[in-house]
Design goal:
Length: about 400
């Protein structure tokens, strides 16, 4: 890994001078962000291109007043469509929906929250606003001056450059993409401000294999989510096999949450939230917080589910068994327990049996049903009714 190697060299050099312990040298060489999957809220899934300064301020207020902040939702991320024109010196300005970005960042910070922004390595963003191409260092400096804590960097129009400048050579095109992401990472690092770097290029070129080398703290593994069970479940269950690539500071990102946007049932939203927690996925809510129902809030802020997602061991879970529409997934946790999810992807409620040997549990183990909020001991076997498109999520530990 490029950055790990750079950091090691820095550690050796500083240690040989007797200046720092290895830990403090590393901390100086590479500010530690995203040690657990980032949690917060992003404007895209609900507001899309209509988002304004007021929507961001209101959302920050609501994250605090609803208790979401206390549950761990910290980043308030502005997605695409904030961008205005560049001035004669090339400095990016906001459009009229965002009159004063520094004041907005100060406001969000005053709530004890962090703020994120969005750009593209291409000349244009996906919504055809100004991208960072050719202005990477300048933009990183502007974001740092505004007080940004997070950047989502979305490939968008850079794809056209990859096509036109690679001469049709896919390896060359991919190398261009890696270089473009590394360039922005280096520009962010040069500001000295800890800024979470979120890659968004839809999982191309097995991004999980090279993203940590270009400084990615998280990387989208798929195309865009939408607020329906089919799309959410296709994306979520397709994450099987990627668990080896995630860990503290670098996470697979199956895209933002749709919980509360209205086009899935409560069982389906519980599946969405449970699967994302098992996946140690970033939890970026994407709903209209001013219209949030108690049921949505309960799903987003279930403490046991968030604890599974945010577990300090930092291991992504994975699929253990799949039998037709019935899938069992498990995630190891720091205290030696594990989260086990029984998912029913079928069209009818069905009894599902916990496969004891496949998840290495036995009679007498302690279990907590984290949605049902019940504690019990496992018997000789354990079967439970799982609703259509639903889940039973358990936290299981040794007796
Ligand atoms: C892409 C991304 C989305 C969103 C939009 C904004 O589609 O994948 O998450 O950021 O661009 O234009």
């Amino acid at each position: 890994m490029r950055f790990a190697a750079t950091a090691s060299i820095a550690i050796l050099a500083l240690a040989s001078l007797g200046m720092f312990s290895q830990t403090s040298a590393f901390a100086q060489a590479a500010p530690q962000v995203a040690l657990t999957p980032p949690m917060g809220w992003n404007s895209w899934n609900y507001f899309a291109g209509k988002v304004t300064d007021k929507d961001i301020r209101d959302s920050a207020d609501q994250i605090v007043s609803t208790g979401m902040k206390d549950a761990g939702y910290i980043y308030v991320n502005i997605d695409d469509t904030w961008e205005g024109e560049r001035d004669a010196q090339g400095v990016i300005h906001t459009n009229k929906k965002f009159p004063d970005m520094k004041a907005l960042a100060d406001y969000v910070h005053s709530k004890g929250l962090k703020i994120g922004i969005y750009s593209s390595p291409g000349p244009k963003t996906c919504a055809k606003y100004e991208g960072s191409y050719g202005h990477e260092a300048q933009d990183a400096k502007t974001y740092a001056e505004w007080g940004m804590d997070y950047l989502k960097y979305d490939l968008c129009s850079f794809r056209k450059l990859m096509d036109s400048e690679s001469g049709g050579d896919p390896a060359k095109a991919n190398q261009m993409m890696h270089t473009a992401y590394a360039k922005m990472h280096d520009a962010l690092a040069a500001t000295g401000r800890p800024i979470v770097f979120s890659l968004c290029q839809y999982g191309w070129d097995s991004v999980w294999k090279w993203s940590p080398d270009v400084g990615g703290n998280l990387w989208r593994t798929t195309g865009d989510i939408s607020d329906n069970y089919d799309r959410m479940s296709v994306i979520g269950f397709a994450q099987a096999g990627l668990s080896g690539y995630a860990g503290p500071g670098h996470w697979n990102d199956p895209d933002m949450l749709e919980v509360g946007n209205g086009k899935m049932t409560e069982d389906e939203y519980r599946t969405h939230m449970s699967l994302w927690a098992i996946l140690a996925a970033p939890l970026l809510a994407g709903n209209d917080l001013s219209q949030m129902t108690p049921a949505t809030l309960a799903i987003l802020t279930n403490k046991d589910v968030i604890a599974i997602d945010q577990d300090a061991l930092g291991k992504q879970g994975d699929r253990v068994t799949a039998t037709g529409p019935f899938e069992v997934w498990s995630k190891p946790l720091k205290d030696g327990s594990q989260a086990v999810a029984l998912f029913n992807r079928g069209e009818d409620a069905e009894m599902m049996e916990l496969p004891y040997s496949a998840v290495s549990v036995a009679s007498g183990y302690k279990a907590r049903d984290v949605w049902g909020k019940k504690d019990f001991a496992l018997g000789e076997s354990y079967s439970t009714m799982v609703p259509k498109h639903g889940v039973v999520l358990l936290r299981i530990s040794k007796p």
